[in-house]
Amino acid sequence: MSELAALALIGDMLVRATPLILTGLAVAFAFQAGILNIGAEGQLLIGAACSTAITLKFGHTLGAGIIIVSLIGGSFAGAAWAAIAAELRTRFHVLEVISTIMLNFIALYLVSFLVRGPLQEPTHIYPQTETMPLYARLPTLLSGTRLHAGFIIAVLAGVAGWWILQHTAAGFRLRAAGKNPSAAKIAGKINIGRTTRNVFLISGALAGLAGAIEVHGVTFALYENLSPGYGYTAIAVALLAGLNPLWVIATGIFFGALEAGASALQRDAGIPVTIASVIEALIILIVLAAGSIRSLRSLQSSIVSNESTAEIA
Amino acid sequence: MAEPGPVSSALELRGISKRFGNLQALSNVSLVLRPGTVHALLGENGAGKSTLMRIAFGMIKPNAGQIRIDGNVVHLRSPRSAIRAGIGMVHQHFMLVPAMTVAENIELGGRGFFDARRSAARIRQLVEETGLILDPLARADSLSVAGQQRLEIVKALAHHARVLILDEPTAVLAPAEAQELLTLIRRLVQTGRSIVLITHKLQDAERFADDVSVLRDGKLVLSSPVADVTVESLARSMLGPERTTNRTQGPTEQRQQHTSITPVIRLEHVDVQRKSSPKDLRNISLEIRPGEIVGVAALDGAAADLLRVIAGRYKPAAGKLITPIRIGFVPEDRQRDALVGDFNVSENFALRDSGQRRGRMPWPRLRREANALIDSFDIRAQSIDTLARELSGGNQQKLVLARELSDNPAALIAENPTWGLDIQATAEIHSRLRAAALDGCAVLFYSSDIDELVDLADRVFVIRDGSLTDVERGAEAIGNALLGSSTLT
Which fold has domain B11-242? Predict the structure, then answer.
């Protein structure tokens, strides 16, 4: 393989990793707080749709500054989409596993309506929006590759996420609420409802940001199959990282490599892309199995220690 | 109570030894359960009581020793073979299927067809015979804790158990229920069954058992008829000569000087709406001064609801409530409500007031303070990075108490502060509470153990039928006030 092709492949891997890191962070944050947000996919799509709409509508007045406005707008849109599930859970005790999955489908069909209706490109032939002007695109980091500045945002988000969880009071509340809501409430006087809402908003914002970055860095337009299931792969990314934001950066890149490599394999060796999905599924199963083996072991050792070593002092 | 018979035994353990890793859990323990008697097995947590009984129930294999039932040597490979040999065991944590009825729970694991009517008839007959009142058609999750325990006992009897092992059966019961259960146990042995009663309550052993054995550090230190021992001699053999503490030490006189000072906690005509029970608390008035230890007794969790209102966890339905800003709270269920098991010691320490904290967590300072607390409260943890769930119950409770007292609160509210702890840990918690009161902290606690109320409190209140009454500080007076003289037998 030539040096140039290798470089392009690395670029591809990191481009793929960008939305995986951000949605992986969205899932990790929610899971850390005991909230099973399966809706990163929908939040990503809404973020992408809103971001595209903002750019196409106001891009000509703001110039390059539209990128920042649009990324913020996309994050807010993702957070708003997650807020629906948050309200359903805190007010009506609707399980977020169900509501977020349902909201994924609503988001998908909403995008599909938008690209055939209000946001369709002027010729009304293709089910997609107009392409974004050049100034509204995220700058490329490495010439000769598709690697864009969004990757840096994703890495920074991972580091910031780790810092928030470990070193801020809000992050501490989030972890306490996830590990033992009862003790968090009674011993820590933590407002569980408010913590839950905030976590939904942060999680949705991260996924929405992933969508916004995807349209500004890769697709430059909104269309139905914008995401090949980033929001679902994100669950594997987050679980493999043990829900640690710093590790999410690493596992996001790993899964990015897997998917980028699979496309190259198909192109060069005729091996179907689905091999990547098979490997991803296997990884989830192995992670889950390892987790249950570990908890079984600790259960056994705690039985033995209660049996014997307890209070020999 | 029967005279000790020379040879006959329902269950005999001979020279049982068991090692776990490099820990000798049991060494050469022998025990004889005479037919038709209650045999109390005493010992602190970790003394080996449960291990010994799990060996008798076939759950654990001993490294050495012999088990005889009715004089015949048996080899127990599993609980199933123990049940077949006529041994039944009621564990501290019940093993019931909540969604199944009493009858279904009892027949679970049987063979052939399940005939609801025949099974119900069989259970009714057992209920009649033993006095363990149960409705065969009630769902297990609709039973009270005492009811679930009766179900466990009837389940063992339905499997034709002649030897019944009860693991700390009174630990989960309110005092009145515990008395009732122990009375029923006496009745059971009159039907020819034999019972091993694991407990760490000396009074229960003294009053309801025929024989008593004491384990300490895996060794049998005493085994004799109850007639030959006293509560004091049992305590001595349980704790060992060097660790015997004066448990009946009363409240110190030095605190009386505080009584003239203005109260830190004041309730005026407070109503408390109750979640768990239809009976609300009405018109509660109470004053607690600095340095006072006030105890509350109640049968059905009413005290917990009142204490949580005073601790600021719930709002009162009506009335005036004055409490200090700095107030410590020790909930009853430490694993559920006080500690995050997967957090380490310093994180659990940081949990206090984390709801109000802004900005960054000052970890270096929090960890320094946590380290100081482990030392001053003698919490046996390897380090402040040890997970809370890896600590023993006593150390968990000390951690909770250390945390809640760490900012020298003006008042401390504690629910059943020594629930499930052994004598040593209980004594430590008591002395911590007394020390806090000496420092001027107003301590309000409730306890389901009347002896603890008498030991620890300066003043005792009883909640009954939704109202609070002042009672004399004595076991009998509290018991009468709790049950009402009409229901007293």
Answer: Rossmann fold (3.40.50)
Counting Cβ atoms within 10 Å, is residue B235 exposed (0-12), middle (13-18) or buried (19+)? middle
| Residue B364 near chain A (CB below 8 Å) | no
Collect all residues from A whose CB is shorter than 8 A from any CB in B: 166-169, 171-173, 175-176, 179-180, 182-184, 186-191, 302, 304-305, 307-313
Q: pLDDT digits over A281-290, tens only? A: 888 888 888 8
3-state DSSP assignment of residue A16:
helix
User: Could you tell me the pLDDT band of residue A249, with boundaries at 50, 70 and 90?
Assistant: very high
Domain residue limits, chain B: 11-242, 245-326+409-489, 339-407
Distance from CA of A311 to the nearest CA of B (A): 6
With a CB cutoff of 8 Å and minimum separation 6, the contacts of B241 are none
**In chain B, residues 209-228 whose CB comes closer than 8 Å to chain A:** 217
In DSSP terms, B467 is beta-bridged to: B464
Contact call for A302 and B389, based on CB within 8 A? yes
B68: amino acid identity, one letter: R
Under a CB-based contact definition with an 8 Å cutoff, are residues A245 and A161 in contact?
yes
Query: In terms of pTM, does the model score above 0.80?
Result: no
> Using an 8 Å Cβ cutoff, are A290 and B3 in contact?
no
Interface residue of A32, A164, A168, A172 to substitute, partner B, most B CBs within 10 Å? A172
What is the block-wise mean pLDDT of chain B (489 residues), using blocks of 10 residues? 57 89 83 92 80 88 90 87 90 84 84 80 87 86 84 88 88 78 89 88 85 89 88 79 47 49 84 68 86 84 81 84 88 89 93 89 93 89 87 88 91 88 85 90 87 87 82 76 52
Query: Taking a C-beta distance cutoff of 8 angstroms, is the pair B223, B196 a contact?
Result: no
The C-alpha atoms of residue B390 and residue A149 are separated, in whole angstroms, by 45
3-state secondary structure of A53: helix
Q: Which token pair is B182?
A: 């122990």
For chain B, how long is the longest CA-to-CA vector?
Answer: 73
User: What is B245-326+409-489's CATH number?
Assistant: 3.40.50.300
- E strand or H helix at B206: helix B202-208
Write down the pLDDT at residue B246: 43
Cβ of B355 within 8 Å of Cβ of A180? The answer is no
| Cβ atoms of residues A155 and A249 within 8 Å | yes
Q: What is the ipTM of this complex?
A: 0.84
Fold matches, B11-242 and B245-326+409-489:
yes
User: In chain A, what are the domain boundaries?
Assistant: 3-271
| Long-range own/partner contacts, residues B244-249 (CB < 8 A, 24 or more apart) | B245/B424, B245/B427, B247/B423, B247/B427, B247/B455, B248/B455, B249/B455
Q: Using CB atoms within 10 A of its CB, is residue B215 exposed (0-12), middle (13-18) or buried (19+)?
A: buried
Cβ neighbours of residue B162 closer than 8 Å, sequence gap 6 or more: B10, B86, B87, B192, B193, B194
For B188, counting Cβ atoms within 10 Å of its Cβ (0-12 exposed, 13-18 middle, 19+ buried), the class is buried
Q: Which fold has domain A3-271?
A: ABC transporter involved in vitamin B12 uptake, BtuC (1.10.3470)
| Count of residues making up chain A | 313
